[in-house]
Amino acid sequence: MESAGQFDYIIVGAGTAGCVLANRLTQDKNVEVLLIEAGGKDDYVWIHIPVGYLHCIDNPRTDWLYRTEPDAGLGGRSLLYPRGKVVGGSSSINGMIYMRGQAGDYDHWAELTGDPSWRWEEVLPLFRKSEDHHLGATDYHGAGGEWRVEKQRLSWKILDAFRDAAEQVGIPKVEDFNRGDNLGSSYFEVNQRRGIRWNTAKAFLKPATRRPNLTLMTGCHVEKLMIEQGEGGAVCKGVIFTGGGTQWFAEARETLLAAGAVGSPQILQLSGIGDAQALHAAGVQPVADLPGVGANLQDHLQLRMVFKVTNAKTLNTMASNWFGKMRIGLEYMLFQSGPMSMAPSQLGAFAKSHPDQPSPNLQYHVQPLSLERFGEPLHTFPAFTASVCNLRPTSRGHVRIASSDSYAPPKIAPMYLSTQEDRKVAAAALGLTRAIVAAPALKKYAPEEFKPGIHYRTEDELAEAAGAIGTTIFHPVGTCKMGRADDPMAVVDSQLRVRNVTGLRVVDASVMPRITSGNTNSPTIMIAEKTARILQQNRCVAQFSAKR
Fold first, then answer.
1. Across the strands, what pairs with 249?
2. How far apart are CA 374 and CA 376, in angstroms?
3. What digits encode the pLDDT tens for the residues 145-165?
4. Which residues neighbour 104 within 8 Å (Cβ) at sequence distance 6 or greater?
5. Catalytic residues
6. Residue partners of 411: CB distance under 8 A and separation at least 6
7. Which residue from 386, 387, 384, 382 is spatially nearest to 316, judged by alpha carbons?
8. How many helices (H) and strands (E) does the chain have?
9. Is 11:220 a contact under the CB 8 Å cutoff?
10. 445-456 per-residue burial string, b: 16 or more CB within 10 A, e: under 16
11. CATH 3.40.50.10490 given to domain 153-187+301-390+415-473
């Protein structure tokens, strides 16, 4: 085993959070940082063309290729579970939608952790700090930051009609989803720069790589953390990993685990941090009994309803022949616009499954296209897809290692629709979608339900339909949740320090105690911003104390 050196910080994972941490921490030229990434560089052309996510998901060059365990709530189906395995992480393969969630999400985090610094008014400046919004700086948006936010470079009449129909059933039109209350419909804003994907590798990591105090090692697989038992308990000394045919170890004052909602609990468990009984069963000696590691898995289950239409332009018909495909390609090549600049979803809407809901608990992703399932060709008939998800699922799943083999994929069990409340909300969501599609604004397109089918009528039947058509929208969180000291399932405290282990933090979407009400990528950036600020403040305090 060879030494990779000693550092102030080791960051495990050059994904969304890892890129932000690397940028912020290396701004102090006296800090030495090692960033370890299992994947390669983000030099694959399809990463940067927005529609290229179709080529990046389920591709070993950019994706971990995870699959879920057969899920009873989905009729025993197993799903693809994409996670980015490349510099930039899931920001290199995701839907590029810029979404913060609702103010109440963060106020609830503050309640669950007992730390008011997680409240909406406290984290809003962190969102603004990173942001470079196309409309410039306002009370809600930032300008000049690394994280570019732009309007989409397209529009579709069928989506405009859906938005009109949503308004006719009580969902108002809005211009901005990111002011703390996202009720309404609008075209999504996206993380692109002039029609090209803007991932965290470009935004945050590329500037940091020019600094001599950052060491980036790609193609390196983390086997486990170096945990020692000291007088005060367990201490994380660094990381053991392989790369280039060599086994390495690196030491650090503090290790920052930023491997995501699947990778972070897996690495903790491989290192002996987790539920002691489960670790013994997997052949791992426990060093810290934390039953919450890998538990509390939450995800947004999207219900993809497909409607055939007439007299409407959709991507199905535009891309149905070689001439249409060439025209689409030429438009992107010349202007970086058109269908190839499309995020996976273009129109969004936030609504309530029932009037009694205090705030929106449903999110729509509406697309001018349809297909049987992800990765298959578009349908040959004109159609649109209205995907709707429950923003606050009560179902909880888990991520668990099956053995001590670090190369073996963990068992991922989301447990979708495992509560009666989630089944009830799913049925209501399908019913609301039908009400929107039946509104006068869409009548001229004669929409006809193709999936799940009009024969699903009662609440129980609609819940069954949800299980038949539901699939992940790629928002796993919560598997290393933060919480109060008296919460036995909390893995980290409100400063993201791992319980009972010194020198170790988790900094990614896994620390969310409850999933945000929307897409999760930009909230993860905020989490990394907040942690970097904490670390910088701690360092300043330590330096001041040393001088005294």
1. 3, 240
2. 6
3. 999 999 987 789 999 999 999
4. 120, 358, 359, 517
5. 475
6. 69, 399, 400, 401, 402
7. 382
8. 15, 23
9. no
10. bebebbbbeeeb
11. no
**CA angle, residues 301, 304, 305, in degrees to nearest 5:** 140
Parse the chain into domains and list their residue ranges.
1-151+194-298+395-411+476-548, 153-187+301-390+415-473
Alpha-carbon span 390 to 69, nearest angstrom: 21
pLDDT digits (tens, 9 = 90+) for 266-279: 999 999 999 999 99
Contact 33, 215 (CB under 8 A): yes
Amino acid symbol at 229: Q
Amino acid at 522: S
Which residues on adjacent β-strands are paired with residue 80? Answer: 67
Residue in the block written with tokens 């006068």 = 440
- Fold of domain 1-151+194-298+395-411+476-548: FAD/NAD(P)-binding domain (3.50.50)
Residue ranges in the chain whose pLDDT is less than 70: 319-325, 328-329, 332, 334-335, 338, 340, 375, 541-548
Joined together, the tokens standing for residue 134 give 């196309």
Q: Which amino acid is at 364?
A: Y
What sign does the dihedral 57-63-66-68 (CA atoms) show?
negative
Q: Which two tokens stand for residue 64?
A: 């971990």
Question: What are the structure tokens assigned to 346, written together?
Answer: 């273009």
82: preceding bond cis by omega (within 30 degrees): no
Q: What angle do CA 260, 498, 100 make, to 5 degrees?
A: 45
